TrEMBL record:
One of its GO terms (cellular component) is proteasome complex. Pfam families: UMP1 (PF05348). GO terms for biological process: proteasome assembly. The lineage of its organism: Eukaryota, Amoebozoa, Discosea, Longamoebia, Centramoebida. This is Proteasome maturation factor UMP1. The keyword Chaperone applies. InterPro entries: Ump1.
């Protein structure tokens, strides 16, 4: 477990990339032992609920819910629009909570307009 500050590989412009650009890098080590558990909390909670449903109702319900989640996670919008996965969030029960992006503007949304045709050509390899 490293306790040193990571060395920046490139210069970061906080006006362009935002204040969280330094913390969003993947090479930042996990400092606290509970940080890894906190990062995996949502995944572990879903897995725990799935095991509880399997113990109560049998393995069929667990497999059916997993199949529905995989189907609902495939629905996507056009590349210039962020996919909200409304069906998936409804089936997981996440639509009943109000988060930061529901109240204020989503920080991951781009400031400038993106050319839809250019993005689709890149996605399709044209």
């Amino acid at each position: 477990m490293a306790t040193s500050v990571p060395i920046l590989r490139r210069e970061i412009n906080p006006l362009r990339e935002g204040a969280t650009a330094v913390t969003a890098q993947s090479d930042v080590p996990i400092v606290h032992p509970l940080q890894a558990r906190e990062l995996n909390f949502a995944k572990n909670e879903v897995q725990f609920k799935r095991v509880a449903l399997q113990n109560v109702y049998g393995s069929h319900l667990s497999m059916r819910l997993q199949m529905e989640e995989s189907i609902l996670s495939n629905f996507q919008r056009l590349p210039t629009l962020k996919s909200e996965f409304v069906g998936l969030s409804t089936s997981l029960g996440l639509d009943e909570e109000i988060g930061f992006s529901d109240f204020l503007r989503d920080p991951s949304a781009p400031e400038s307009a993106i050319d839809l045709h250019e993005v689709m050509e890149h996605r399709l390899g044209l």
